[in-house]
């Protein structure tokens, strides 16, 4: 552990200031092999993401994966890259600004910033900036509705790493998950209904979540259960029966067994069974990204159609949908309780305290 870094001197009488740190996964800076190499090296070196003995893994990662995958992944990113950059970053930035606006309209005086677990803006650098701006309370909101060790816990690790090197810590709070939050489920249902009103109701709704190694379930990770619960609650909201929907897991990485059923083989199977029209939604992704726009909306679509399916609809993530943003604002508002952000009694009281202290010639 390195010693605390030099920080701005303590300012007497400063009022509490609250910040919300909205943390997403991160994404490469450009759709190029070099940028992908940097991004994947950081991402896949995280022991929360790949849980195999370090020495063996570093050998495989640097000896094989980082020689092959960057070029392949760069080609995929190039298919979804926008003029403003990676979709994940564009949406995360927009969501942070919208959340700031909504909380402001509700009378909360808070600063909302986003940070990325891998790549930029880094969590530690963003926390440093917030402290320099005077933040004394930070609520950390990982952009993952379902908790997993690989995602949510890894954000907490990064905040903890920053805390280990920081002298004057802000008060810290963390939101672990919101997989069964009523407003989140209702926002997903609104998205689905709107899509059906415009594009027609499918024979089957596939809810595709990012996968995880199957062994993480036996090791106590709640991710699988939380995905299934989100799926059940969404189906309930939509009035679906068990025949109308399916929960699947996508984005398998490596050779090990991951959570099943896998998304693409399931789409192939149901097309062969005669399902003609399928709609796919990815409720575990708070914003569209490579895994939804390329793997599902392009790759999985081709798989389904080639297997005999006739119609494939991809239902976008919540992104900047008003109901989804309101759900995030409600969630953060609940977690802000006890941190007075709506009025400034502390500021007024502190000013009075300071004036009285100064009159006495005291500093404290
Ligand atoms: C939504 C939750 C996510 C979980 C759980 C998750 C676990 C997980 N991911 C990998 C490996 C990769 N994931 C990649 C991209 C990616 N993953 C998520 C989310 C979760 N991952 C998102 C939102 C994205 C997209 C990022 C973007 O820039 O758009 C990638 C990189 C892309 C590629 O090269 O394929 C890898 C690799 C593992 C191993 C894992 C659990 C152990
Ligand atoms: Fe992933
Ligand atoms: Fe379970």
UniProtKB/TrEMBL annotation:
InterPro entries: Ferrochelatase, Ferrochelatase_AS, Ferrochelatase_C, Ferrochelatase_N. Its EC number is 4.98.1.1. It catalyses: heme b + 2 H(+) = protoporphyrin IX + Fe(2+); Fe-coproporphyrin III + 2 H(+) = coproporphyrin III + Fe(2+). Its main location: cytoplasm. CDD domains: Ferrochelatase_C (cd00419), Ferrochelatase_N (cd03411). Keywords: Cytoplasm, Heme biosynthesis, Iron, Lyase, Metal-binding, Porphyrin biosynthesis. Pathway: Porphyrin-containing compound metabolism; protoheme biosynthesis; protoheme from protoporphyrin-IX: step 1/1. It comes from the Bacteria. It is found in: Cytoplasm. Fe(2+) binds at residues 210, 291. Belongs to the ferrochelatase family. Catalyzes the ferrous insertion into protoporphyrin IX. PANTHER family: FERROCHELATASE (PTHR11108), FERROCHELATASE, MITOCHONDRIAL (PTHR11108:SF1). This is Ferrochelatase. It comes from Roseateles koreensis.
């Amino acid at each position: 552990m390195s010693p605390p870094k030099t920080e701005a001197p303590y300012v007497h009488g400063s009022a509490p200031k609250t910040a919300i740190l909205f943390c997403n996964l991160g994404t490469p800076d450009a759709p190029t092999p070099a940028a992908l190499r940097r991004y994947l090296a950081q991402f896949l070196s995280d022991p929360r993401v790949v849980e195999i003995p370090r020495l063996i893994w570093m050998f495989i990662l640097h000896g094989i994966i980082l020689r092959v995958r960057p070029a392949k992944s760069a080609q995929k990113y190039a298919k979804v890259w926008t003029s403003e950059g990676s979709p994940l970053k564009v949406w995360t930035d927009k969501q942070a600004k919208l959340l700031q606006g909504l909380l402001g309209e509700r009378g909360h005086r808070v600063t909302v910033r986003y940070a990325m677990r891998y790549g930029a803006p880094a969590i530690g650098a963003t926390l440093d900036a917030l402290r320099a701006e005077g933040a004394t309370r930070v609520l950390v909101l990982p952009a993952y509705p379902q908790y997993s060790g690989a995602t949510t816990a890894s954000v907490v690790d990064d905040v903890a790493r920053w805390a280990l090197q920081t002298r004057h810590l802000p008060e810290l709070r963390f939101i672990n998950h919101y997989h069964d939050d009523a407003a989140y489920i209702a926002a997903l249902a609104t998205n689905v209904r709107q899509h059906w009103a415009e594009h027609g109701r499918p024979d089957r709704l596939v809810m595709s979540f990012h996968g995880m190694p199957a062994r993480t379930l036996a090791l106590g990770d709640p991710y699988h259960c939380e995905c299934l619960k989100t799926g059940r609650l969404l189906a309930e909201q939509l009035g679906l029966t068990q025949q109308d929907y399916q929960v699947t897991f996508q984005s398998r990485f490596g050779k090990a067994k991951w959570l099943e059923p896998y998304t693409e083989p399931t789409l192939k199977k149901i097309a062969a069974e005669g399902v003609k029209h399928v709609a796919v939604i990815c409720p575990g992704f708070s914003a569209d990204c490579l895994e939804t726009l390329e793997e599902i909306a392009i790759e999985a679509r081709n798989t389904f159609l080639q297997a005999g399916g006739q119609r494939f609809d991809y239902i976008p993530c919540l992104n900047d949908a008003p109901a989804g943003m309101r759900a995030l604002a409600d969630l953060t508002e609940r977690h802000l309780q006890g941190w007075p952000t709506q009025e400034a009694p502390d500021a007024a009281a502190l000013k009075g305290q300071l004036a009285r202290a100064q009159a006495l010639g005291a500093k404290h």
